[in-house]
Please model this.
Amino acid sequence: MNHQSEKGMTFIVKTVTKLTLGFILLYGIYITFNGHDAPGGGFAGGVIVALALVHVMLAFGKEASLKLLSARTLRLFMATAAILFLYGIFKGYPKAIFGNEFILPLSEMIIVSVGLFVIFIALVLVPKSDKRSE
Amino acid sequence: MIEINILLVFMIAAALIAVQVKDLLSSVIGIGAVGIGLSMAFLVMKAPDLAIMQLVVEILSLIILIRATIRKDLPFSTSGRWAFNTISTIIFLILFLVFAYLSFANIHTFGNPAIKTSQEYLSHVQGKAANLNIVESIMLRYRAVDTLGEASVLFAVVIGVLAIARRAWRRDGAE
Amino acid sequence: MITYFLCLVLFSIGLFCAVRKRNIIKIIIGIGIMEYAVNLFFILIGYRAQGRSPILARDQAITNIVDPLPQAVALTAIVIGLAVMLMLVALAIRIYERYGTFDITKINRLKE
Model:
């Protein structure tokens, strides 16, 4: 298990992940932006995007996925989404001429996906990487 | 509505399995079955938003629970006053169910809701709104500050989990 | 009426698991079952027989619709439930690293 979580899974899983990652991300974005006419919304789309990232990390291991999304990138996404969300809230939904019904689901999706991915990294990989020294 | 009763019986059976089975991995899979049944129940109850949400949330929490509990031990002991505590808990639950059943006389019967509070939202949703999904319209239009609180809960959870599971914290604080 | 009662039976199963079990993971599972039952009870309260789901077509009158407000409330409650479950799992992992067990009756010593 430890060897697997460092190096990732087998060749078959990696190939299937490469093939399906784009479709999962596209489906998450579709759920997000179609949410105001059909079932869906920012949170569900964000969880789907987070599941795609988790999929990559389970298949390729910790190093490859953190090379794809470094800690600086995650922090940048999170801060940008928080500022966008505050902007959307304080501007007010009904008064918006253009773009506010676009901004709120987008920022919520980024917050949810990045936050859940960070929580997954913290819960799964950090306690495994350091052992008790006592 | 016989479908929702069948789904509820399925969920109760899966919950009993999840509670009583000894293997932790089987227990986690049992709660996964309860979640999938709940998603189907939302779909039968005409709430497709909640069905999508429950399905994806269930998958994520299942992954995290499995990764957290795999290859861990399982203590099971019947020491102490095991029989007395169990019987008193069951008596308490039976009393709870009896009084809850008596209190059902005060709410409306199943299938005839008194839509009072939503009437205000529904009267506004038709004219100027561009949203066709009324639930999303209520979430983002009338209760947007509520959504802000939801997002801030997520930020708080990220900070809390990172503070709990951090490496340097243990080196400085614990020993 | 039997539907409400079955939903409460599900709730009481979760309550029994959270009160009576000794394993932390079992307690988390019990809390999760209680949360599921409460979310389902919200939706059962707002259900109308032969009602339509609250997704409209364009320029359609609102008639015979299920109550959308409990759905919006439960949508928030699911998010909070996920957050609570993640926090509890983080605490359980830390307790397992510290004490080497999930049994709550053995987690009673102070620091030595």
